[in-house]
Every structure is written in structure tokens, then in C-alpha cells.
């Protein structure tokens, strides 16, 4: 059954529909966010008070490119060929997106200068932020390039098949994919990225990119990870190669080239 953070923290509670989709969040401060789901099981809208955000997707996929906010400008994203969000535009205000080597959105660039910056702990909780007070629109996509749907300052990320809460370091729902006795840590079906988020990621919400996966699974996961940041290079390679090589361009037109290698 879905996890209820209220049982552990006495603060935030989640409500779900009969299909297991999130329908409401109630925070300890009394803020309520209500959600609707579309026919494909994707988040369709979020309502907090009198403000409703409606999400637009690329075709039948899960890549959200648009947030239409009632009473405000619609935020549209420039989407790369692999689904990465290169830039954002709200009305006449736009900004390029800046990523780090982990695939996290760490800032924005507007008018040729960095206009905002973010820093996370290994599990994705925001520990520092800065904004110039001018520049492009704020980003609803942050850790691992994921959409934050929380109504308060504690993020809740749409993470593939499930929702991920950095404040508790786990998914909020039970994994529908069973773990494997040959890799015991996968039998805890709430863990995020095999409890090793500084190194690993979980693009699908079902399995981390780890040495316990087959080479073909790791290669498939690597493609998803690379697509989040638009790197032109290799990502996680099969464990048999014991090598991680990443080469790419950070900040899409930002002019910051980066290469990291570990053998």
C-alpha cells in the first residue's frame, strides 16, 4: 500500500485514489494540494488554494513540457531530442537550464549571466538556493530534472512510476517490481537508487543504475540518464567494464564544457 509520511513525521499526509494515484497532499501547516490524473495515468493538474497548474506532455509520453498556471503566464520548456529541458519561457521571460554531472538542475542562465543557483544533499533535498532577483522564470524541475509537485518547501518529485520524497530519502509508494535475492538491497521496495543516491539514479522508479544489473539493463538506464541532461557521450557502462565516462556540454549554449572519468 502507498506510504503515508504522517505515520513517521506527524506532518504531511497523502491521499490516493482507488488506482493508487496521488489525489491530495495535506501538509502540517494545513496547506492542501489536490491532483487530477489524465487517461494515461499522468499528473494532469495540481490545485493549491485558488491556483491551478495544468501540465502538458509531449505526445503520449511522460515528458512534461508545459505548466499552465491560472491567473499567470504559461511556462513552456524547450525540449531536446532526448527529452531534456534546455530552456524555459514564461511570457517574455526566458532562461537556459544549467545541469551538474549528476543530472540535477543547479541553476539558470538569463541574459548571458547566471540568474539562479541550487544546491542539494545526496538525496535531493535543497540545502541552498540563490536568485539574482531578475532573469528567467523559476524552475519547477529540479533534482534529477524532475518535476516538484509539493505545495510547500519539502519537495515531492514525480519520479517515473512513483513519487520520491528527498526529506525521507525514499519513494512514497511500494515498488510494483519485486526485488531479487541475488541483490538483497532491491528487496526493500521503498529505497531510492539502492540507498546510494550520490552515485546512482533511478530514472524509471523501478530500478537503480547499479552493478547488480545486467549489462543490457545498465546500458538502457544509461541512455535515460544521459537523455536527462543531453550529454553527447557515454554514461554508466556495464559493470564488467568497471568504468564510468561522461563527456558533454553543460548549460546548453552556456559555453561550459565538462568531462569526468573514473576507472
Give a nutshell description of this structure.
This protein is mainly β. Helices cover 7% and strands 36% of the residues.
The count of helical stretches stands at 2
Overall number of strands: 17
Q: Looking across the biggest beta sheet, what order are the strands in?
A: 1-2-3-4-5-6-7-8-9-10-11-12
What is the CA-based Rg, rounded? Answer: 18 Å
Percentage of residues in DSSP E strands: 35-45%
Average the pLDDT over all residues and give the rounded result.
76
Biggest sheet layout: 12 strands, antiparallel
Unreliable stretches covering 5 or more consecutive residues: 1-9, 210-215, 225-263
**Which class best fits the helix and strand makeup?**
mainly beta
Name the helix and strand elements from N-terminus to C-terminus, one letter apiece: HEEEEEEEEEEEEEEEHEE
Broad shape = globular
Distance between the termini: 41 Å
Helix content: under 10%
Describe this entry's structure for a reader.
The N and C termini lie far apart (41 Å). The chain has 263 residues and is mostly beta strands. Strands 1-2-3-4-5-6-7-8-9-10-11-12 form a 12-stranded antiparallel beta sheet, with no helix packed on it. A hairpin with a 5-residue loop joins strand 11 and strand 12. It is built from 2 helices and 17 strands. The chain is globular. It has helices spanning 6-9, 215-229, and strands at 13-16, 22-26, 32-37, 43-48, 51-57, 64-69, 75-79, 85-90, 93-99, 105-110, 113-120, 126-131, 157-159, 162-165, 170-171, 244-250, 256-262.
Amino acid at each position: 500500500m502507498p506510504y503515508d509520511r504522517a505515520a513517521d513525521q506527524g506532518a504531511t499526509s497523502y491521499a490516493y485514489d482507488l488506482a493508487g494515484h496521488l489525489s491530495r497532499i495535506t501538509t502540517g501547516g494545513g496547506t492542501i494540494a489536490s491532483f487530477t490524473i489524465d487517461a494515461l495515468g499522468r499528473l494532469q493538474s495540481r490545485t493549491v488554494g485558488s491556483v491551478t497548474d495544468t501540465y502538458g506532455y509531449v505526445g503520449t509520453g511522460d515528458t512534461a513540457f508545459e505548466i499552465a498556471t491560472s491567473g499567470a503566464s504559461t511556462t513552456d520548456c524547450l525540449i531536446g531530442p532526448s527529452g531534456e529541458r534546455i530552456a524555459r519561457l514564461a511570457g517574455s521571460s526566458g532562461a537556459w537550464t544549467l545541469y551538474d554531472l549528476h543530472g540535477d538542475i543547479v541553476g539558470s542562465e538569463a541574459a548571458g549571466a547566471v540568474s539562479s543557483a541550487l544546491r542539494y544533499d545526496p538525496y535531493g533535498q535543497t540545502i541552498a538556493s540563490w536568485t539574482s532577483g531578475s532573469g528567467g522564470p523559476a524552475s519547477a524541475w529540479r533534482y534529477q530534472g524532475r518535476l516538484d509537485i509539493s505545495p510547500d518547501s519539502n519537495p515531492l518529485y514525480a519520479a517515473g512510476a512513483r513519487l520520491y520524497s528527498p526529506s525521507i530519502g525514499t519513494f512514497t509508494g511500494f515498488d510494483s517490481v519485486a526485488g531479487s535475492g541475488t541483490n538483497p538491497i532491491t528487496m526493500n521496495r521503498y529505497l531510492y537508487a539502492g540507498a546510494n543516491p550520490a552515485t546512482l539514479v533511478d530514472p524509471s522508479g523501478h530500478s537503480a543504475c547499479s552493478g547488480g544489473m545486467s549489462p543490457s539493463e545498465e546500458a538502457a538506464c544509461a541512455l535515460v540518464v544521459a537523455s536527462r541532461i543531453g550529454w553527447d557521450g557515454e554514461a554508466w557502462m556495464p559493470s564488467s567494464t568497471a568504468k564510468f565516462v561522461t563527456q558533454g556540454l553543460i548549460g546548453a549554449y552556456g559555453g561550459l564544457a565538462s568531462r569526468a572519468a573514473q576507472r
